[in-house]
Amino acid sequence: MGYEPQVDFGTPAVHSDTTVTLSIDGRDVSVPAGTTVMRAAAMSGGSIPKLCASDNLKQFGSCRLCLVEIDGMRGTPASCTTPAAQGMVVHTQTEKVQKLRRGVMELYISDHPLDCLTCSANNDCELQDQAANVGLRDVRFGYDGDNHLGAATDISNPYFDFDPSKCIVCSRCVRACEEVQGTFALTIDGRGFGSKVSAGLASDDFLSSECVSCGACVQACPTATLNEKAVKTIGKPERSVITTCAYCGVGCTFRAEMRGEEVVRMVPWKDGKANRGHSCVKGRFAWGYAKHQDRMTKPMIRNAITEPWREVTWDEAISYAASEFKRIGAKYGNNALGGIVSSRCTNEEGFLVQKLVRAGFGTNNVDTCARVCHSPTGYGLKNTFGTSAGTQDFDSVEDSDVMLVIGANPTDGHPVFASRMKKRLRAGAKLIVIDPRRIDMVRSPHIAADFHLPLRPGTNVAVLSAIAHVIVTEGLADEAFVRERCDMDEYRDWADFVSDPRNSPEFLAPVTGVDAELLRGAARLFATGGNGAIYYGLGVTEHSQGSSTVMAIANLAMATGNIGRRGVGVNPLRGQNNVQGACDMGSFPHELSGYRHVSDADARALFEAEWGVRIDPEPGLRIPNMLDAATDGLFKGLYVQGEDIVQSDPDTKHVVAGLEAMECVIVQDIFLNETANYAHIFLPGSTFLEKSGTFTNAERRIQPVRKVMEPLNGYEDWQVTQLLANEMGLDWNYTHASEIMDEIARLTPTFAGVSFARLDEVGSLQWPVNADFPDGAPIMHVDGFVRGKGKFIVTEYVPTDERTGPRFPLLLTTGRILSQYNVGAQTRRTENSIWHEEDRLEIHPSDAENRGVHTDDWVRLASRSGETTLRATVTDRVAPGVVYTTFHHPTTQANVITTDNSDWATNCPEYKVTAVQITPSNGPSQWQEEYDAHSGLSRRISAEAAE
Amino acid sequence: MSEGYHVDTTAKLVRMVNQIEANLAHDKDPVSTVADHIHAFWTVRMQVQLLDHGTHELGPVGVEAFKRLARGIRSPHQMAATDPKDHGADGG
Question: Tens digits of per-residue pLDDT, A445-465?
Fold first, then answer.
């Protein structure tokens, strides 16, 4: 599509069952009651000049440009603050209002630089547009009076500048920071002529302030005051392509605004149903990694991981890869081979990798990174509700009365959705947080959690049992709902279990560390506070009882009747942009696409007929089991697409040992990641900007990914998989990703109605999309659970094997921060590193004092698995006895510390509970030094070029 | 980098079964549920590895579950991959 700015209707949309009809400049317009005159005019194809109004912000009425005349109404009301009324007659272009508008513009322009031709916003500036609209011809005040033209530009933020000399103090940026983002970092300092936008204190600039660099202010700014640096250097975009972000599971849609093949900026798409026109620093600004100097574009091979890489042609690399895998299959059997599906690549790419493994390698040894994050979600929700996914869409939060956030840190992990949560909380919803740390949502501007339960890591099930105990024993359960929708016998068994005094808050307080009365209050609030929605993350799943916790959450939702409508539900906050999709596509060793077990003969028959091969009816190996089998000499070849298991998986020494034991490791990625240190074949991958396909976000929303530039490596990732498949003897002929989706739709009942054409037409679809749900299903289990009756499953607290003791007296838990993303492969290669250059260990003041540790000191972090060294931050965000770190930097080697403990049902690693000790240190650990040396050697590329 | 690193995969399997048993203690038919769980999620080779080791380190439910699994597992040669020729790849 060409470049056109997104339509701005001026004031927010209003939903009403009542319609009013008014006349605007002689045209009859019918709009929902409550719609402003400004929006009504825009909806009818007209436009009223505006500067302070924007349709994602509440009306403000400050610029006075939108004045109109209304029959029977005195004066010249502002159309942005005047609701449309039945029979109203509006005149938008009378001589009087035109004169007033020119006068307003004269005032604005009298204190504004006249450098349009050299300004970065030239031809993309609302002030310029409105000056033209009102017919401004001269400024009678002249330019010799007091002005702000000498104000200095704040260039502190790496992505945008703030030039106050161009500011018209419309307050859109301040309001965007408040209403859309919810950070309240900006304010208008001073009064009258002295008014100016300020990012915090007078001593703050944007970088030092509380600004989280979401870009909402830049998007809101009608002038060049807040403008992307890229626009200044590259120029105005000339076309735009709508695509989906490749970072987190929110799945924001953006307009990739291009100049040629260069991305100028990523602007949130206002019609994106996941993000509703908002973004975070990562999706908005941190896309430059696609052209980072570390980006790999040429295939490479080597005989041994101790040799340097040798660049080769694609033909040679694919031929070598196929011959190695055929050799291994022939020598050791097909079950010595396997693949890992990426949670960052598209649905189509994930589908092809599992197809290659099943149809090409002849095994079910395929897995995905969901293994280490939300595999318990799939297990737990499938068993209780019948569907391996969340129950709501993001919009549902607008009707929530009580939010229970457990094991999640939305402001850091899912920031755009967190902004929506905060908006609802500011409007009066209540908040319960269950987390060992005082996450930002516990207390942030205009938000305070009604209850924060700072539980001891590893005691989720105990806390949830105690909450259930209160709800059942105090008669707060919704038994009418249960009777209608669930198995009553199973409910009674569960109710009897949780009612046992051993599940009371008082009995469990010594275990959980949570005050009993505090817990009782939280339970009562959830059960009686209205629509209760549960949001959870990896602080639930990455435990030895991850699946049990998910099922306990499902039990709570059913017991309180909080399923099957807006405002409620069980909402797993999926981490990666396409981890939901990867799971949907059959990336698990026991399931085909659509979550059908490989033993399901009917499902297998469908695939066997389509693919012309026999599918193994026995489950294959999960990632940790692949590594175990490798160390046992039974697993020899691995194809890894878009994953970095050396950095992201637990117990690094185990991962490395497994990889070193293999004979052929193929890594397909955009960078030489840590796993590539142990690879024999490197196939360069493509970024989300260089391919077409779909991602599925945490809401089950399937959204298009559209290519905006040709892949630097020459192929989209799915094309590379096809090359490998055909070299291995398969006969694939996909010419476009849409053909792969068509195959997915043929084989996967929940995707039956999905196609690229359909997605182009409607923007996105939430599965299931089939005859029963032709337009998708935003809310699930509305009339009944997918499995029929909801199943209550008794979840008894079983303590983790990981215990503290004299040697390791502290508990380590891990998480993410806003500016970096997971292993940091993308974000570390952008300017985001300015906010988080290293992983830090958070330690409570009392624990720090006992050890003589201060902020910025180097400390040794040791567990029974290994040790590493990093710098400390002393903070009371963590409780005594608990320490916390992130895992964004490979040099930290955080997963050297984590153990092989895992969820009983899915082997999801217990990242959140590791017994550790902290001691002062003066240098890196031996492992870090050895790893660093190996990594350096492994990354050598021979100077001999490919022919 | 992994010289000297050793993982006892059989001990891991034992631990996994005991962990499954502990978490399914309240199931109405724990033996069936544990057996079904292992059958659904473990490879045949993993099940045979544990059977070859013996079930003496398992809890009572695990022992019974593996008795059932042992009856259902096909002959050891089935642990090997299906014939590569079934999947269109040539064997060489």
Answer: 899 999 999 999 999 999 999
Nearest CA in chain A to B5: A657
Q: Domain ranges for chain B, please list them.
A: 9-77
For residue B89, name the pLDDT band (cuts at 50, 70, 90). very low
Picking from A147-156, A462-471, A558-567, A932-941, which range would have the lowest pLDDT averaged per residue?
A: A932-941
Q: pLDDT band at A947, cuts 50/70/90? A: very low
Q: What is the DSSP string of A147-190?
A: -STTPPPB--SSSEEE-GGG-----HHHHIIIIII-----EEES
Q: Which two tokens stand for residue A436?
A: 């060992």
Determine the 3-state secondary structure of A431 from DSSP.
Answer: strand
Which of A305, A334, A592, A732 has the highest number of chain B CBs within 10 A, making it the mutation to test binding with B? A334
CA distances A757 to A693, A717, A751, A763, Å, are 12, 21, 14, 10
The whole-angstrom separation of Cα A300 and Cα A311 is 4
Q: Which whole number is the average pLDDT over A572-589? A: 95
Contact A362 B82 (CB under 8 A): yes
Angle between helix A460-473 and helix A488-499 axes, rounded to 10 deg: 100
Strand, coil or helix: A758: helix
Name which of A339, A336, A759 is nearest A585 in CA terms.
A339
Tokens of A60: 């403000």
Which chain A residue shows the shortest CA-CA distance from B10? Answer: A628
Q: What sign does the CA torsion over A768, A771, A775, A779 have?
A: negative
Distance of CA A683 to the CA centre of its chain: 27
% helix / strand / coil in chain B, to the nearest 5? 65, 0, 35
ipTM: 0.90
Q: What does the alpha-carbon distance between residue B40 and residue B17 come to, in Å, rounded to a whole number?
A: 13
Interface of A with B in 330-359 (CB under 8 A): 330, 333-336, 359
- CA-CA distance, A490 to A282, in Å (whole number)? 45
Q: What is the pLDDT of residues A263-286, one digit of tens each?
A: 999 999 999 999 999 999 999 999
Convert the pLDDT of each residue in A514-536 to its tens digit: 999 999 999 999 999 999 999 99
Q: How far apart are CA A267 and CA A256, in angstroms?
A: 7
pLDDT at A2: 61
The tokens 């990867």 sit on which residue?
A582
